[in-house]
Amino acid sequence: MNGSRTIEATENEIVEEFSLFDSWDDKYEYIIDLGKKLHPLDEKYKIDENRVRGCQSTVWLTADYENGKIFYKADSDAVIVKGLISMLIRVLSGQEPDKIIKANLDFIKEIGMMSHLAQTRANGLLSMVKQMKNYALAYKLKNAN
């Protein structure tokens, strides 16, 4: 991931990619493909403390802090959720904690994701965002002194 890219630039890129598809069936296929490209998460991270609460499916999320930036890794047992988390990782990974905490993540609405996901999936997506921001906040506080 190119650390010099802004969160907004990556969001705009995703919005453009989604505008290429006419139907939601195609968009779902694309999300599933993104999930298939997500690096598999090492089994040692698939533990209860890395589970994202509020997701219908099982989602594991972990973060590392290197040189002032946060790098996320995640996995899920549901293909569509893997695709969603892979988009969030693409946008937020390699960014500074402050930028992650302040990110609006408007691309989620712009691509129509919230209106096309089942309520439980939409809640799960918000839980993943919240967890990623919580990691950012934790690393920011931990490294403040």
Model description:
The protein has 145 residues and is mainly alpha-helical. It has one domain: Sufe protein. Chain: A, CATH 3.90.1010. Strands 1-2 form a two-stranded antiparallel ribbon. A hairpin with a 2-residue loop joins strand 1 and strand 2. The protein starts with 6 loop residues before the first helix and ends with a helix.
Task: Offer a few descriptive terms.
2 strands, mainly alpha, 54% helix, 145 residues, globular, 11% strand, two-stranded antiparallel sheet, Sufe protein. Chain: A, 7 helices
Let me know the average pLDDT. Answer: 93
Number of domains: 1
Order of helices and strands: HHEEHHHHH
- Shape, principal axes of CA atoms: globular
| Helical content class | 40-55%
Going across the biggest sheet, name each strand in turn: 1-2
Distance between the termini: 28 Å
Number of helices: 7
Low-pLDDT sequence parts: none
% residues in beta strands: 5-15%
Helix-strand makeup class: mainly alpha
CATH architecture: Alpha-Beta Complex
The CATH C-level name is Alpha Beta
Largest sheet: 2 strands, antiparallel
| Number of separate strands | 2
CATH topology: Sufe protein. Chain: A
Alpha-carbon Rg, integer: 15 Å
